[in-house]
Amino acid sequence: MRWFCTLLVMLAAMLGVRPGSAAAERGRVLLVVDSTAYMGTLLGGSSKMVAVGNALASVWPNHAGQLDLGLTVYGHRISGQQACTDIDPRRRVAPLAAEGAGDLFAGLKTKGDAPVSKALAAVAAAKDAAIAGSAIILIAGGPDSCEADPCEAATKIAAERQMPIHVIAIDAGGEAASLQSLKCVADNTKGHYWQVASTLELAAALDDALALAHLAGNPAAGLRASSSAGPDTGILPDGAGSPDLAADPAMIAGLNSPNANGPPGQINLSALLTDAGPVLTTGVTWRVYAASGPTLKKVMASAEPNPVLTLPAGDYLINAAYGRSYATRKIKVAEGSAKAELVLNAGGLKLGARLGDGSLVPAQFVTADILSDERDQFGTRAKLAEGIRPGVVVRLNSGLYHVAATYGDANATVQSDVAIEAGRITDATVTFTVARVTFRLVQQAGGEALTGTSWTVLGGAGETVKKSVAALPTHILAPGDYSVAAERGGKQFTQTFTVKAGDAIQIEVVAKE
């Protein structure tokens, strides 16, 4: 079931199915979140509780247009054994704006025991139709500590509701064994289980869980898209995030074609964020290549995080892609079984955008391209990702990158260099100094704007900055000197103007013969 759901999401990405299309319906998801003492443990530089809030704020913009969200929290109001009755349905399942996710966990305390089973049972028994029709994502920092069996609760929920419960278990170090007791919740409800050990893994798991929750509620139409121009979703179309292996002769050198007549071997694959771990449990796409003369031939692909592959004996290239980060290595398959670990040295980049006065720029008005730090012999940087929106976590190999962000659709562009550290999410904020300019062509000063006008905005050196056709076009421009040409009825009228940072002005062009 897990493989089938993941395959459907990948097919949707390749076919370009997008949420919000005419066929797609909004899904519903209910977060059941641990707020007990377990969640006070540090994950990275903050508590697990804070990390969950940051992760949701990072990935929710990917899903706000296709999911309604509810929230139930357990264990935040009462400490001690009485916490086993502390289950708080804080938010009914309803639309939540892309920028509203960061406020959901404000004021929560991390207190007593963890009634995981009772919280799930309470959600399953809810009479609210919106809750009853929702997929469930359980985010837990520890096992049930209230002498109840979460496996039994999950089995009952599966029988009554027939909806998956996806489980994200947060291991801050040394808790892996106890968290495994929650895996049965996902297994018994045909959900997915992630055990995460870093903030980057947490954000990736939550991103993928929300995508699968939508898929469960809308199997025909609720598939999330992923494209080179869209946000990084973690579930990739074939080829995304990987280098052109066939173009690298060094990768092919020394490869021997597999021996189809020899005994096969098994290879157990796993990917790590850093040398110190952890092993990734979600979001990894594997591709296997064999030598075919002077080129490579793809022989297998898998979206399982830790696949066990059976291959004819021989030499192969194994590529692991995690978002837009990747690692590739040569392996030799022989009779028997072996393990291969690939260290991705991957981190995350999350962009923010502000104006010079400190105010936030709405994410829908900003797009960014991520380019290589190095230039080729022609001075050109390789484009690694494009169309990235603020607030979305993009997974990249550690290293230096160049970011080119644009506010609006003209020349208000900021460029910046950023460094990505393995195992961490890097927050990078770009600051725009811009002016908002509206143009109008009139018969006389102060008159009505004339329709059917074509506009060409030129920069100080005569370069074309923007073209448009409208009665009152508005563009975001960088400060500087410009000229504008308005064309209507075969006649052209021009005017020069200057804008400064923070301007919000109207340029009136009078149609004089």
Can you describe this structure in just a few lines?
With 513 residues, this protein is an alpha/beta fold. The chain has 9 helices and 29 strands.
Could you explain the architecture of this structure?
The structure is a single chain. By secondary structure, the protein is α/β, with parallel strands linked by helices. 17% of the residues lie in helices and 40% in strands. It contains nine helices and 29 strands. A six-stranded mixed β-sheet has the order 5-4-1-6-7-8, with helices on both faces. A hairpin with a 5-residue loop joins strand 20 and strand 21. Helix 2 crosses helix 8 and helix 3 runs parallel beside helix 5. The radius of gyration is 27 Å and the shape is globular. The protein starts with a helix and ends with a strand. The N terminus is likely disordered.
Number of strands: 29
Strand order in space, largest sheet: 5-4-1-6-7-8
Anisotropy-based shape: globular
Q: How many helices in DSSP terms?
A: 9
What is the mean predicted local confidence, pLDDT?
A: 82
Major pleated sheet: 6 strands, mixed
- Tell me what portion of residues adopts beta-strand conformation: 35-45%
- Helical fraction equals 10-25%
Structural class label: alpha/beta
End-to-end separation in angstroms reads 72 Å
Rg, alpha carbons: 27 Å
Low-pLDDT residue spans: 1-24, 219-241
